[in-house]
Design goal:
Belongs to the citrate synthase family. Keywords: Transferase, Tricarboxylic acid cycle. By secondary structure, this protein is mainly alpha-helical. Helix content is about 55%, strand content about 0%. A hairpin with a 4-residue loop joins β1 and β2. α10 crosses α19. The protein is globular, with a radius of gyration of 23 Å. Bound molecules: acetyl coenzyme *A.
């Protein structure tokens, strides 16, 4: 019953755009998306080409510094990251304080927040050297933190990083290895995880990245900003969708595998029932990342010699949805998260780690966006306006008269 246009007139020059559907908050030279054409490019390079020819650390360099590295630049970058993978022993004790069944996302965010207390001399956003070392520390330590968050839930000892291994291999060993047993990293798994991290590495002004920028716009440090971004990512409408997809597929199987019936429930707008992993604010066409992930899901399951009933259900769901008017009219296509969970599951990750994997992949994008903002002369503190809809003016009423 509120007359918004009348209120807008009263408020003057405020634009009301809930969810920022049509409001640009910054200029950026990092990621280009054409949602209608299904195009995604990092620094001008098409995502499919990077997925095929590059690796995650190289893509991280590209996003953060703007250009592909030379061999010497790449080696130096990788070496710096390798030398910072350890966590301070005091930080390690943080993990003891969480309950055994703690969800790894808030653990991840808390530990990143705590990093700022260990590196208090390097927090000034205006100091380029501090920003540089914080960048390296975050990229190096997040996989260690993520692996420890997992180890905590399974009650296994933490493994120190093995710096003879590559970035992805090191993370896999810290996650799945045991101290007394040699751990052979499966190259098929490492390659697929590297690819998935590339696909997640940036996606311009999505909810978590906008959060990182907004928090950073107050000149809060990089660790504080990224920690906030991790929380933003955790919601089921954002990064949390990858685990929500798995729960949805499991529920369909538990209820007898009736895909058509589930789609009907989505269409009838039963409360809380959405087709998870479908739809996107910007893509009104097939998400180019989803096409690559779908193929990877087939390859990985084949190479690991696993078949997954849930993959069949997912494909059936996609088939039904893509041919159904409800989804066609609303331009709802599979997004990056529709098939990722199935791959993570085949790799041996429990469902609650899926969004943590998203965070590991998105980290270079968050860092690149924060750094771009910090040096942007047009950068101001983020401070949206509002359209006030409450009582105009009232006189205070004493408690005895209420
Ligand atoms: N299932 C069923 N209907 C949907 C879905 C879905 N997944 N997504 C959107 N719709 C419908 C809405 O009900 C709405 O219909 P209406 O116009 O008749 O009311 C219409 O499509 C538009 O939806 P909005 O919610 O307005 O679209 P918005 O751009 O705000 O939301 C979002 C995008 C959040 C991604 C949404 O599609 C969604 O909730 N998807 C499921 C969760 C998901 O997969 N999230 C991952 C996003 S990608 C990422 O973070 C990696």
């Amino acid at each position: 019953g509120v007359d918004i246009s009348a209120l807008l007139k009263q408020t003057g020059h405020v634009t009301l755009d809930p969810g920022y559907v049509n409001t640009g908050a910054c200029t950026s030279a990092i990621t280009y998306i054409d949602g209608d054409a299904g195009i995604l490019r990092y620094r001008g390079y098409p995502i499919a080409e990077l997925a095929e020819k590059s690796n995650f650390l190289e893509v991280s360099y590209l996003l953060i510094y703007g250009e592909l590295p030379t061999q010497a630049q790449y080696d130096e970058f990788a070496e710096k990251i390798r030398r910072h993978t350890l966590l301070d022993e005091d930080l390690k004790r943080f993990f003891d304080g969480f309950p055994r069944d703690a969800h790894p996302m808030p653990v991840l965010s808390s530990a990143v927040s705590a990093l700022s207390t260990f590196y208090q001399d390097n927090l000034d956003p205006a100091d380029a050297e501090s920003v540089e070392i914080s960048t390296v520390r975050l990229l190096a330590k997040l996989p260690t933190i993520a692996a420890y968050a997992y180890k905590k839930t399974v009650g296994q000892p933490f493994l120190y990083p093995d710096n003879s291994l590559g970035y992805i291999e090191n993370f896999l060993r810290m996650t799945f290895g045991l101290p007394a047993e040699p751990y052979e990293v499966d190259p098929a798994v490492a390659e697929a995880l590297d690819l998935l991290f590339i696909l997640h590495a940036d996606h311009e002004q999505n909810c978590s990245t906008s959060t990182v920028r907004l928090v950073g716009s107050s000149q809060a440090n990089l660790f504080a900003s990224i920690s906030s971004g991790i929380h933003a990512l955790s919601g089921p409408r954002h990064g949390g969708a990858n685990s929500a997809v798995l729960s949805m597929l499991e529920q369909i199987v538990a209820e007898g595998g009736d895909v058509a019936n589930f789609v009907e429930r989505v269409k009838s707008r039963e409360k809380g029932v959405r087709l998870m992993g479908f739809g996107h604010r910007v893509y009104k066409n097939y998400d180019p990342r989803a096409a690559i992930v779908k193929k990877t899901a087939d390859d990985v399951l084949d190479r690991l010699g696993k078949s997954d009933q849930l993959l069949d259900i997912a494909k059936q769901l996609e088939e039904v949805a893509l041919n159904d008017d409800y989804f066609v009219q609303r331009k709802l296509y599979p997004n990056v998260d529709f098939y990722t969970g199935l791959i993570y599951r085949a790799m041996g990750f429990p469902t609650q780690m899926f969004t943590v994997l998203f965070a590991l992949g998105r980290l270079p994008g968050w860092i690149a966006q924060w750094r771009e903002m910090i040096v942007d002369p047009a950068n101001k503190i983020g401070r949206p306006r509002q359209v006030y809809t409450g009582e105009r003016e009232r006189s205070f009423v004493g408690m005895e008269q209420r």
